[in-house]
Amino acid sequence: MSASVSSDSLRQFSRGIAGALLLAAVWELCARGLDLPAYVLPSVSAILAGLANDAGSLLAAARFTAAESFTGYAIGCLAGMAAAVLVTMIPSARSVVIPLATAINSVPVVAYSPLVLLWFGIGMASKIVMVAIAVSFTIFLSTIAGLDRVDRKSVDLIRSFGAGRLAVLWRLRLPTALPLVIAGMRVSTVRSVIVAIVTEMLGAYGGLGWVIYQAVLQVDFVKVWAAIIVASAISLAFFGAISFVERRYVFWR
Amino acid sequence: MSGTATLAANLPVVSTGRLGAVLRPVLWLLLALAVVEAVVVVFGIRSYYLPRPSVIASTIMATPGAYLAGLWRTFLETVLGFLAGSIFGVVMAVLFHRWQTLRELFFPLFVVSQTIPVIAFGAVVVLWFGNTLFAKAVISFYISFLPVTVNTMLGFSAVDPRQVQLMRSFGAADAQILRRLYLPAALPQLFVALKLASSLALVGAIVGEWFGDTTGLGVLLLQAMYNENVAGIWATIVVSACLGMGLYGAVSYAERRIVFWGGEQ
Fold it and tell me: Which pTM does this prediction carry?
């Protein structure tokens, strides 16, 4: 049984790699065969060469962006979960807060970025605030959905054994909510990096968004693509880390 | 005011419930705006940080044409990208469902493609397609198709294989099984993704406009930011919020009409 499972995942893995290589080959062929200029589509090998060339500055920018996204992400997750627990504890607040949060969540987050830049300056603080806002709403809504999944009868049972509100929350609601909370956290990883980069493009002292913006102004599209690759490497690593935590600690799913 | 109160009192119970459900959020909103207005005035908060709601409203009313034109342009970009992304997303889900090899070859790439900050891509897309409505729609499209594909596949996988066998045994063709069994079964999951995709498409359109354009909500945002016109930023945020909520509401309405059986959420 376990042997067949591992050979299955091995095949999936190798096919995934094959798909990526296929794409890279087609890309390289198109770029070279059609002799496309670099501003239209640089070849894969040119991008890799550019990546190696600018490794130092790209790495510094990546560290900058990663620091902003991680800090904002952590703040956003904590704030979102705390708010969700609070709302669950105070039932009368629900009917006001949840429609409001859903409404605010449907507003494009990027619309706030000029405002946040004016308020918090173009340093790291404005990016952290933007990421925290973007992440906290997603986490808030998924935590609420998770806390609500608890079976009414389980609550009644645990209450009949004399458990108080806090005990119900700690022993029943939070463990039930965990799978949905972590799923929300997994989705938010990619979002946090994207929001940090978007905000950097509007104004920053450093970071990948700033590098991309400068490279666009200088019509250096090899550098744009190299920065895009670094950015997706950060998102992928972040996404992978949270997925690993999810598989490790939400083992009962 | 008293006229509406007596009118509401005369209506049947069910209707007042519905009327109340519509009116209550509006009343809360008005109350919240009044509170913000009062707080700003009483504490003397500088308009640089938070302009009064009435100032924001009068900013919009001063040049309604510019905001309407921006709204219309961004709306078109968003809807084009959203529709293309939804259709492409469902088609890809069907293809991936039908041919496992195709899924194993390319689905990981689909997932990786979403970790690429689209925005970084925006400059390249605008370069490819020119500074047109179409270029922004392409960005909206790119940002919105993956949730649709993922959720449609999730919906497909929840179909009971015995139902498929039953339909086969009655001689149903693949296309019929897809249309009558798989697609309806995936609809509830699909709509969850469509709601997400509609707001993502709007983000794509607004950010796409930052790479150079003359009309649109994204342009209004940038112009207000460069002029440090905080009331203008807020006015654009309010207009974008209306557009975002309108799109979300439209998809939710379609969901209630089409997925009438999915009432448990």
Answer: 0.78
Q: Are residues A22 and A108 in the same domain?
A: no
Work out the angle between the directed axes of helices A208-217 and A174-202 (0-180°, nearest 10).
30
- ipTM for the assembly: 0.71
In terms of phi and psi (left: phi > 0; alpha: psi -120 to 50; beta: otherwise), the region of B213 is beta
Q: What is the pLDDT of residues B167-207, one digit of tens each?
A: 888 888 888 888 888 888 888 888 888 888 888 888 888 88
* In a domain? residue A40: no
Identity of the residue numbered A15? R
- pLDDT, one tens digit per residue, over B32-65 is 888 888 888 888 777 777 788 888 888 888 888 8
What is the residue range of A29's domain? Answer: 1-35
User: Are B105 and A118 in contact (CB < 8 Å)?
Assistant: no
Maximum pairwise Cα distance, chain A: 76
B193 has a chain A CB within 8 A of its CB: no
Scanning every residue of chain A, which has its alpha carbon at the shortest distance from the alpha carbon of B109? A20
Q: Is B35 in CB contact (< 8 Å) with chain A? A: no
Q: In the block, which residue shows the tokens 């693949």? A: B174
pLDDT of residue B85: 92
Q: Does A217 touch chain B (CB under 8 A)?
A: no
Question: What is the distance in angstroms between the Cα of B138 and the nearest Cα belonging to chain A?
Answer: 16
Q: Which CATH superfamily is domain B53-258 in?
A: MetI-like (1.10.3720.10)
